[in-house]
Backbone:
């Protein structure tokens, strides 16, 4: 394992963070080195175009089309991608180099070949859906929220066996004070180690509110906002570290089941055991800070 892999803990994203300026430049050049060859592998008589649709948000990228295919044949091929019938399509050839709203030609003659309109690699075919009853027009091809979900009435669900509700009902019949076990209430939070002691103050020793830190897994950086024991039912027993991440990589805003531990923006807060937190010099990461074209370090 190389030095970068050891420092990053075999996490590829963390490995990039630990790269030096020269190493990042080499990686960038490796990834983008063949960008100018994007269309070199196309055979003669073919072009690579993108496809958009008047009623759909999805874009069909890098479609290889024969210049010898008729517009009618192109429509039949695109029909399988977007659902619009060929007879309801109006195809607009757009020059992506000057903006997708610039129409080069309206390809409305089904008998002419695609090459007649002189498309260039990287241009866009925009499909105008003229079907008054098009499903794409009302969002049925993309918006899954429009599909009616299966629902069951409360009465029918109560009649079912081996459900969570039936299990709770059986347990309460045996013991009116029965409550389900919460995984987070198990000391240590690990199934199978129910008798393990809850993490004590020694697990968070040396950590203070305001410390910069890095949290595993993921090498997520942030600021310590809380150090101490859990106060409610939302966290397991023992001591915790509350962290406000620099990016929205968390699960909460510092509140757990109504108990407020600290203030932070939504999705920026999280709680971790002390063993997963390292405090120290962890400045906020700017992944693009070292990617200038003036890099001269190797």
Residues:
């Amino acid at each position: 394992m190389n030095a970068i892999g050891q420092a990053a803990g075999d996490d590829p994203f963390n490995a990039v963070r630990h790269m030096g300026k020269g190493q990042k430049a080499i990686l960038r050049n490796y990834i983008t080195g063949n960008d100018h060859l994007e269309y070199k592998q196309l055979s003669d008589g073919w072009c690579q175009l993108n496809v958009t649709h008047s009623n759909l948000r999805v874009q069909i990228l890098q479609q290889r089309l024969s210049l010898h295919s008729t517009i009618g044949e192109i429509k039949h091929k695109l029909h399988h991608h977007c659902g619009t019938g060929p007879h309801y399509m109006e195809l607009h050839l757009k020059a992506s180099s000057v903006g997708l709203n610039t129409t080069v030609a309206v390809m409305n003659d089904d008998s002419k070949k695609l090459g007649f309109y002189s498309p260039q690699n990287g241009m866009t075919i925009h499909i105008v859906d003229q079907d008054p009853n098009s499903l794409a027009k009302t969002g049925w091809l993309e918006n899954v929220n429009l599909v009616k979900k299966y629902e069951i009435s409360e009465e029918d669900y109560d009649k079912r066996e081996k459900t969570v509700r039936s299990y709770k009902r059986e347990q309460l019949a045996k013991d009116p004070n029965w409550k389900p076990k919460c995984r987070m209430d198990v000391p240590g939070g690990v199934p199978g180690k129910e008798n393990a002691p809850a993490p004590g103050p020694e697990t968070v020793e040396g950590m203070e509110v305001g410390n910069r830190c890095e949290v595993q897994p993921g090498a997520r950086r942030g600021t310590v906002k809380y150090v101490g024991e859990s106060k409610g039912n939302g966290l397991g027993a023992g001591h915790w570290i509350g962290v406000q991440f620099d990016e929205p990589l968390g699960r909460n805003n510092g509140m757990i089941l109504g108990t407020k531990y600290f203030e932070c923006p939504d999705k920026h807060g999280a709680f971790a055991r002390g063993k997963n937190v390292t405090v120290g010099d962890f400045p906020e990461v700017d992944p693009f800070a070292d990617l200038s074209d003036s890099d001269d370090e190797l």
